[in-house]
Amino acid sequence: MIRAGPILAMLLAVFALWYAAAVPMNIREVLTEAERAGAAVTPATAVERRDANALGLVLANPGQISGTWAQDRPRLPAPHQVAGELWQSTVMEEIEGRRGLLNSGSLSNRGLLLHAWITLSATALGFLIGAGAGILLAIGIVHSKTMEKSVMPWAIVSQTVPIVALAPMIVVVLYSVGLQGLLPKAVISAYLSFFPVVVGMVKGLRAPDAMQTDLMRTWDASGWQVLTRLRLPASMPYLFASLKIAVAAALVGAIVGELPVQGGGLGARMLAGSYYGQTAQIWAALFLAAALAAVLVAAIGGAQRLALRRMGGAA
Amino acid sequence: MSAAILALALWLGLWALNVWLATGPLANRIWARMAVPLLFGLTILVLWEIAVRALQVPLVILPPPSQIGARFGASLPVLWADFVQTIGRGALSGYLIGCGAAFLTAIAVDRFVFLKRGLLPLASFMAALPIVGTAPILVMWFGFDWQSKAAVVVVMVFFPMLVNTVAGLSETTAMQRDLMKSWGAGYWQGLLKLRLPAAMPFVFNGLKICTTLALIGAIVAEFFGSPTLGLGFRITTSVGQLALDMVWAAILVAALAGTGFYGLVALIERGVTFWHPSQRG
Amino acid sequence: QDLDEVRLQLQWVTQAQFAGYYVALDQGFYEEEGLDVEILPGGPDIAPPQVLAGGGADVMLNWMPSALAAREKGLPVVNIAQPFASSGLMLTCWKDTGITGPQDFRGKTIGVWFFGNEYPFLSWMSQEGIPTEGGDDGVTVLKQGFNVDPLIQRQADCISTMTYNEYGQVLDAGITEDELVTFKYEEEGVATLEDGMWVLEENLEDPDFVDKMVRFVRASMQGWKWAGENPEEAAQIVLDYDETGAQTEAHQVRMMGEIAKLTEGSDGSLDEAAYRRTVDTLLAGGSDPVISQEPEGAFTHEITEQALQ
Amino acid sequence: MMNAPIPQTVISARGIDLTFETADGPVHALKGVDLDIAKGEFVSFIGPSGCGKTTFLRVVAALERPTAGEVSVNGLSPDEARRARAYGYVFQAAGLYPWRTIGGNIALPLEIMGFAKAERARRVREVLELVELGGFEKKYPWQLSGGMQQRASIARALAFDADILLMDEPFGALDEIVRDRLNEELLKLWARTGKTTLFVTHSIPEAVYLSTKIVVMSPRPGRITDVIDSPLPRERPLDIRDSREFIEIAHRVREGLRAGHED
Amino acid sequence: MMNAPIPQTVISARGIDLTFETADGPVHALKGVDLDIAKGEFVSFIGPSGCGKTTFLRVVAALERPTAGEVSVNGLSPDEARRARAYGYVFQAAGLYPWRTIGGNIALPLEIMGFAKAERARRVREVLELVELGGFEKKYPWQLSGGMQQRASIARALAFDADILLMDEPFGALDEIVRDRLNEELLKLWARTGKTTLFVTHSIPEAVYLSTKIVVMSPRPGRITDVIDSPLPRERPLDIRDSREFIEIAHRVREGLRAGHED
Ligand SMILES: Nc1ncnc2c1ncn2[C@@H]1O[C@H](COP(=O)(O)OP(=O)(O)OP(=O)(O)O)[C@@H](O)[C@H]1O
Ligand SMILES: Nc1ncnc2c1ncn2[C@@H]1O[C@H](COP(=O)(O)OP(=O)(O)OP(=O)(O)O)[C@@H](O)[C@H]1O
Ligand SMILES: Cc1ncc(C[n+]2csc(CCO)c2C)c(N)n1
Ligand SMILES: [Mg+2]
Ligand SMILES: [Mg+2]
């Protein structure tokens, strides 16, 4: 209860701000519509309003404020519009839609749930590939000076390549060499998620202090024993911290990989929404994606608690 | 077949040279330390060139590095203008505004538990908003020019910077804080003389992460509308024109700029956090 | 029996612009021809010629300027059929900006699609003698995103629209036709051919491939015919195939109506006069022409001739 | 276990209880602690690990608030005394700020208290001499050995001339020889300045050697089991440690400690 | 400063030099160290901070390679001896792995050395009894007090029955009473097992109480300044510390230390 208080207060503040911001953001179009409908607005013509200050317009036409929260294609949809769209495109679509769960027996492609699922599966696959590759690379880096010196700088450079910008092209190229379905998106996901894992795991695998590794030496432990008995357990807190970042990155990767809209997914949904000027649709997909990220991060947090409990819950 | 053997031989040879450079008697020389990653990069480029030529990959799929280099050299003025537009205007101003705002917010969040409890979860939610969705909206709000790119960058860098700075500000040990208290230090004194210096390693961690994010944000935002220049513009239009060499030349600019940007921040970090164990080597 | 596989790369997301193909698929026209067709939606980030080059598709739909440019870039693509007889491209401007003709574009901001589709606009401007570097004397060109917001938000004075899609979106946004001025490329004499079917030249040496294409074109044209006759159903079929579920029915029905006007009068074979006009427009592109030489062998009538028998 | 009130009491604790609420349940760190400390006294606290020595010092310095009971420092509450900058606190570990040089570390409390620049420089030089670190002003903490860092942290606590010196095992990490020398110096310093000093240690000889009063504590809950007023003279050469009185007091302290361990 | 060769020498060091190359220039940690240690001896190393005690132990355990000189352990090189698993090393801090229970920590070297599961369980139980931690097998390190952790770490070093025990200030962080108790127990253990033991400490009484031989070192560069063979009997009750011999040896050690500090 004590913890929920501030969040609720902040949420309220955000909603209030949001509603307030929607007024000047949308006023111009509202006035234009009102003018078309024959109402008297000041200034009277769109040309005059074009360079007018938005706040000034609001003050000059206070009667039109409620219209800014009820537009069809708002610049900034009001919270209840987004919530309504979310409700429509998840629950209502599945219940009532021609292709919804109730009527067709499978999730509707006009609803968001199917797209969230598509994105989620690409994210999961990409995350597994990326995290796995990241861990292996980190192990290599920790064990080989040459690997460290040659690969590490390029791992950094690799992240300065605007992969997000290349994603569509890569997906196309992969598609043309026969990689289809989830895999091309997962490759982008993996590319974005491997880096945080490498950085975190290199730190984590090096976390044991000199004494802990020296002890291993006095027992004449093999490299493999040191890895499994010391480095890996010691790296767990670092691993989970980076996995949380990585899973969020993987989600972004999957969404970006959906830019070529074949196959659907939340990314395709957002873009298609933007092609057809469906603002509410973009916002709904956007919020669902953020919620998905929150769930994924929370899931990793759960795994973390479980693992740390099994490891004595010290950290 | 012979190309495969040639590639393999080259790979093994260069790798062996690298092993020797990295672990051999010269390993501590500065030039050897620089040479190792460069040699690794060179190896990849050579293998790329061989692969593209041997497999006769169509130019419109993947051009060889030599052609990319030639295109880069021939298009310097265009690429320079793109660089100025995307990185000089969009990324840089967004980076400064976003990181600055996050820094100040972090100080407020650190001061008021209420904000920490209320704002941090919201900020993390905001961080999860994918750029693909936010960019079109921000382009719609802020117009086609660099301002909308800066806005996208602000949204992208805000959260990582906030989280890092908040973590950094609470990085002091109880003893360090107690000392301040025992001297009767006020809030601002504690902030300026203790918490901010102690936070610097984290602040720079955030600043480094944000360099690449800023770059990516500015470029991707250009997909959703831009004037007729900029790296993102160049990449998309060139893909459309099948000028893949130009696409890669633009990517090269982005990677060079990103690496330079990152290196610059890392350099400043060295100067500011010289005292931190990770910098003392 | 074994069906021959054909992959078709569209140049935009699933919408009624491609109704003929979806109808042919849905109504089994392809199957009747012994074809197993896979339709790959496109989008603003997919360059169909690249997909073709990489072997990701057998046929692509492309606008002729972009395809001819690819041809000059060393990717020999050949037009095998041209179901779209006329162009749907136009500029849509606010009337209140005072624009009445192309000469009024000076000093204005205009949104243009790039990605290979800027060519017709650039050659039009160079024919008019209007520089495109901005300033009072020239037009300021924006790379337009893929919706009509820039016009509605008045970030641009004019934007590119297609008669069948974006123009409808502008009207859907509540703007009335008399608030707008439109310039159809067709009417300005700078029209270039749009959605044509293109394949790689080397594939045409393979008789089996040619035979496959003949059947493909035949079935596709049958689809277009059916779509023109049953616009409502065609729109519904398109909606069913849309994987993003983003379009609305009303919009697709209207789009189908407009598309039918563009395919009208085409039996799929390329009209050489229209081809001539397209090439001339492109060659006239001023300082930075889209194509620098007269293309050769960029089309063939072989397929359509066999298909129409 | 109260000792008679002494004139000019600087610190007076009455019935201090302190309970930490932890996830595993409450930890009773201090229970019914009464103590009076007169001006200029050198009081050592000794007791097994976890008996509440540190906690008591922290209560005096207003770094911890007791659950029950009253502490007054010069008639003020600990918090008022803290804000009046009455304390010089030396923690068990050196606790130097790594981004400041030794000189900068010592100057830090002076900056915070608003000393003028020249005065700061003068004082830094002075206390550095005192702890034999002249010439190390420009070095960073990590460039010094543990013992030198500890001395720098003592210098920092001395620099601003607080009335009350609180030292929590300041010599824990040092070897016997250095420790002896620093003990001698601390004693001299104390004799010269007459600062009221509260000193925590684990070493019985150290406690006996330094103190005018030794407080023996027992753990869980932390209580005072013995308060020994030392009969040793103020002048104490190192070899006083071989004297009968010294050995007797040491014996009494050890017995007190053992008793604490037994319960 | 060599003592006469003793039959059955286990460790023999001849002219050991060790110089660390650091950014600030070379640090001479050890210089010309000669030492012979016979089977079953208990050797304490004492000397000011930074004199090279730890470094010497590390050289013996093959964790550091000397710049010059020869060490042999049972006629082997230190590295061969390490691979023959001749050492049980106890570091200054307990160094238990926090993700393993006490039992798991003790079993770890046994796992690594390939002991069978039943044998591991048996030994863990045995050494836990030995250090009086029976019943704590399933606890995690942080659930134990510092003293108990230290005992667990000693148990870990004992479990695999190495010939040579190397202990680096194992009791540094404990209070006097607990330390006394552990000293007594360590002595009993040593008497029972007869393991050759090398023990680093800062405490003179501890060194004298435990050792058959005390090595006094001086710093920079680390040299041996005195080697004292203890005339004390093997059986040592705690109050032997008040005996004349004890005090005499302690005096000699203190003098040796002071001399080291002077140069
Ligand atoms: N912040 C805290 N939260 C919970 N328990 C605490 C806290 N601080 C101290 N304690 C507990 O209070 C008791 C007294 O601790 P204190 O640090 O005062 O002991 P000490 O006498 O200084 O011991 P040492 O000699 O080991 O320094 C201990 O049992 C300790 O575990
Ligand atoms: N890895 C290293 N690199 C550089 N110098 C080192 C290193 N290890 C030890 N030294 C230096 O070698 C000298 C001897 O160190 P050592 O740890 O052996 O001292 P010690 O006698 O164990 O001291 P203490 O009692 O403080 O533990 C010191 O001056 C120390 O600074
Ligand atoms: C990046 C890109 N921009 C423009 C087009 C041209 N285009 C061809 S079909 C179509 C849809 C109209 O509703 C458009 C805009 C393209 N293919 N790709
Ligand atoms: Mg304490
Ligand atoms: Mg040591």
Automatic annotation (TrEMBL), chain A:
TM spans (from-to): 116-142, 154-176, 182-202, 238-260, 280-301
GO cellular component terms, A-Z: plasma membrane
InterPro entries from the UniProt entry: MetI-like, MetI-like_sf
Mode of membrane association: Multi-pass membrane protein
Highest taxon of source: Bacteria
One BP term from GO: transmembrane transport
Entry's localization field: Cell membrane
Location (main, coarse): membrane
Keywords recorded for this protein, A-Z: Cell membrane, Membrane, Transmembrane, Transmembrane helix, Transport
CDD domains per UniProt: TM_PBP2
Name of this chain's protein: NitT/TauT family transport system permease protein
The species this protein was found in: Limimaricola pyoseonensis
Automatic annotation (TrEMBL), chain B:
Any one GO biological process: transmembrane transport
Transmembrane helix is among the record's keywords: yes
Segments traversing the membrane: 31-52, 92-113, 125-144, 150-170, 202-226, 246-268
Keyword match Nuclease: no
Membrane topology: Multi-pass membrane protein
InterPro entries referenced in this protein's UniProt entry, alphabetically: MetI-like, MetI-like_sf
Residue ranges occupied by any ABC transmembrane type-1 domain in the UniProt entry: 100-272
Domain of life: Bacteria
Record localization: Cell membrane
One annotated Gene Ontology cellular component of this protein: plasma membrane
Keywords: Cell membrane, Membrane, Transmembrane, Transmembrane helix, Transport
Primary residence: membrane
A Pfam family the protein falls into: BPD_transp_1
Name assigned to this protein: NitT/TauT family transport system permease protein
Originating species: Limimaricola pyoseonensis
Lineage summary: Bacteria, Pseudomonadati, Pseudomonadota, Alphaproteobacteria, Rhodobacterales
UniProtKB/TrEMBL annotation, chains D, E:
SMART domains (alphabetical): AAA
Domain ABC transporter residue range list: 13-240
Any one GO MF annotation of this record: ATP hydrolysis activity
PROSITE patterns xref list: ABC_TRANSPORTER_1 (PS00211), ABC_TRANSPORTER_2 (PS50893)
Family, per entry: Belongs to the ABC transporter superfamily.
Alphabetical list of SUPFAM superfamilies matching this protein: P-loop containing nucleoside triphosphate hydrolases
Signal sequence extent: none
Organism expressing this protein natively: Limimaricola pyoseonensis
Pfam family, one: ABC_tran
Keyword annotations from UniProtKB, A to Z: ATP-binding, Nucleotide-binding, Transport
Protein name: NitT/TauT family transport system ATP-binding protein
InterPro entries: AAA+_ATPase, ABC_transporter-like_ATP-bd, ABC_transporter-like_CS, ABC_transporter_ATP-bind, P-loop_NTPase
